[in-house]
Amino acid sequence: MSLTIWIALLVLTLILTFVTATWFRPLDPRREQRIWIRSAFRLPLTIVLVLVLGACGRATSEKTVRKLAGSPEAVKARQEAEAAGRGTIGAWEAETPLTLGLVILEDVCIGGRDKEWFFQTGDDKYKIRCMLSISAYFGADPRTVADTIDGVLSAGDQTDSPIAFNHDFLYARTVVDYYRGKNGAPVGHNAVEPTRLSKAGTITLNWDQVRGENRRELIDEPRSCAPHDPPIKRCLKEPGSTTVKDLRNKYGMVFKITIPIKNYYTIRK
User: Fold this and answer.
1) What is the CA radius of gyration of the chain?
2) pLDDT reported for residue 1
3) 104 and 137 assigned to the same domain
4) Both 178 and 99 in a single domain?
5) Are 20 and 144 in the same domain?
6) Which 8-state DSSP code applies to residue 92?
7) Which of 97, 109, 204, 246 has the most other CB atoms within 10 Å of its CB?
8) Higher local confidence (pLDDT), 150 or 27
9) pTM for the whole structure
C-alpha cells in the first residue's frame, strides 16, 4: 500500500474519532465549545505532522537518486572504492602465478523505498545507497594447480599483502597437499575435489575442477551487463571481447576472484 493511501487513512481516522467524540457524547454548550476550539487548532497541526512524517518516509525519486549519485561526494567515494578494487586485482596479477584475463565491474545506486510498516527490510532508512562489485578471471595451467595455489599463499605471506590467503590458512595448505597427491580431499574421505578458498569478509577464490574423471568447468561466463546509465548504473567488461571460454581454451583452466560488494556511499533519511 502506498504512503499516500496510509496518510489518507490516518487523516480519515482522526476526523472520524473527532466526530464520534463530539456527536455521541452529551456535553453542555460551554464544554462543547471548548472542545471545538481545541480541535480547530489540533486537527490542522495533526495533519501537518502526518504530512511531514510522510515526506520523511517517502521513496526517493529517480531524479533525486541521479542527482545524489552524481554529487562530488558520491563521485569521490566511487573513485576510491573502484581504485581499491582495481588495486587488489593488480596485486593478484603481479604477485601470484595467475594470469589476468577478464575484469567485471558493476556499480549501481538505488533510492530508498516508501516507509515499510510491516515487512521491514531496511530499504526505507536511506535516501540513496551505492554499491560496487568487482570480479576478476585468471587463466592457469591445470597441470600445475598445486604450484599455482601455493604461489597464491606465498604472495599472501608478504607483509601488508592484499592477498587474503597465506600459509597460516590450514585448509589452504591441505588443498595444496591434495593436488600434490599427499592426501585425499580435505573435507573427508571420498569427498569431491576442492574448488574454493574463502574467508569471511574477504575475497573468494574459485577454480575449475580438473582432477581425473571429475573434470568440470565450474567457472561460468559472467552475466550480461545491465544497461550502462551512469551515474546510477555502470557495468564494465574489460576487455569487452574476452570470454571465460577464451581463457580456458588458452590456459587450460580458469580461476575467479570475487571481491565482496562495497557499499561505498549512503545517505540516510
Assistant:
1) 29
2) 44
3) yes
4) yes
5) no
6) H
7) 109
8) 150
9) 0.77
